[in-house]
Amino acid sequence: MSNIFIKNATIYSMDANIGNLQNGNILIKDDLIVSIDHKTEKDFDKEIDATGMIALPGLINAHHHTWQTAIRGIGGNWKQREYFNVVHANIATHYKPEDIFIGNLIGSLNQINSGTTTIFDWSHGNATPEHTDSAIEALFASGIRAIFGHGTVKPDPKEGEPHFSTIPHPREEIERLRKGTLHGDSELVTLAMAILGPDYSTKEVTLKDFQLAKEFNLLSSAHIWGMPNRIVKEGYALLLQEGLLNKKHNIVHGNYLKDDEIKLIVDSGASVTSTPVAELQTHGVEPIVTKVSNFGGKPSIGSDLEIYSGVGMLDILRTSLRSQRIFSNIKFYDDGMKGEKKTTTTKEALEWATINNAIALGIDNKIGSLTPGKKADLILIDSESLNMVATHNPEQATVLHANESDIRFVLIDGKIVKENGKLFLSDEKLKRWKEELKESRKNLMQRSGFNS
Fold first, then answer.
1. Are 348 and 395 in contact (CB under 8 A)?
2. Which domain holds residue 403?
3. Half-sphere CA count of 90, side-chain side, radius 13 A
């Protein structure tokens, strides 16, 4: 570890007590932020002159299926249930541990390159413990900060086999991981449970999975839509009644949930993560970001998957913001343009991808803002690039104009992982990994017979 001094940055700390600083300095010692001010420091090992750059907390991706990287772009024109029928019922069943590894590795490096320093890796392609171990190994190898959400596969059952909705989360795997690779909560990669939840599992399985997460004191997360065909009709009212719903739970999507259930979830302390880019691919209802905010919650966003689109968090937060503005405009005009027109601000959108996502994942004591004492996860964005220069407001410029080519530096845990616009690894190694990903894709397509 070393001490790093960043000087002359335009700092957007996302910490209400610190605010924004012009020509500000950041001192990092080992893995922690020590100070954010205008003082000049002399005791450092490396200096970064951030003149003309915007300093932000590292972006956080609160929901991403990283294992699917090798099949990115196959579903750009999908409209209905193709994702379930093509991916889970077919391609996913042909994944080998080495496919999981290279997908997680390249997927995580892509996130880092795009300014994301932390991901919730919602991993439900892990058919065996070997698949799981490969996913975790790749996360560590990439250098990203990650919450590994241990999930379960969802193939169509063969004759005589039980449906996945009737199978509880494997306790033996949670015990194995908690006693082994992911035994602690202070490493770069930590453990969570990616469970089926009330939409995709029976009442008995739902309760068992929540109880298992509670026993091991783990964050649990579930895909929830709230559609009429959900398996547990009582939804989260049941879990609240059983004393199992609290801040250690995260729901994803929720587009069809009724207001009373959204309020119940928010009031319980549980978090809600929306993935507008993926949701609007096949759904015509509004992502619930604004509703979560209206009920006093902290909206959280993620990319979901690369099958439909790119997953850089700058693109995700920008599209998420625009989708909320579109639905807000529609409502305003449908209501006859009465009252004050509401709009989501760029500051709110930036909070979604930083401090709010940290809160949603229960790690805001570590990351999510540039705060002395927190981990040194941050990015520096070039405000002098052709698409950024002369923009009036750095915050708006970041949300509405910046792209991954503008991200000059990325630091995770006090280590520089992207410097002067280039990932901190050899061209030879990166080339080899790219070839392995292409080989994985070819093999998966051949094994599954997918050729569309």
1. no
2. 3-57+374-423
3. 16
**How confident is the model at residue 1, as a pLDDT?**
63
User: What pLDDT, in 10s, does the model give residues 258-273?
Assistant: 999 999 999 999 999 9
Whole-number percent of the chain with pLDDT over 90: 92
**CB-based contact 154:197 (threshold 8 Å):** no
Average pLDDT over residues 63-73: 97
Domain for residue 412, yes or no? yes
CA-based Rg of the chain, rounded to a whole angstrom? 22
Give the 3-state secondary structure of residue 365. Answer: coil
Q: Clarify whether residues 167 and 185 are in a common domain.
A: yes
Helix H or strand E segment including 25: strand 20-29
Do 306 and 411 share a domain, yes or no? Answer: no
Q: How far apart are CA 192 and CA 355, in angstroms?
A: 19
Q: Are residues 288 and 337 in the same domain?
A: yes
Angle in degrees, CA 110, 114, 116, rounded to 5:
90
Buried/exposed 2-38: b ≥16 CB within 10 Å, e otherwise: ebbbbbbbbbbbbbeebeebeebbbbbbebbbbebee
pLDDT in tens, 287-320: 999 999 999 999 999 999 999 999 999 999 999 9
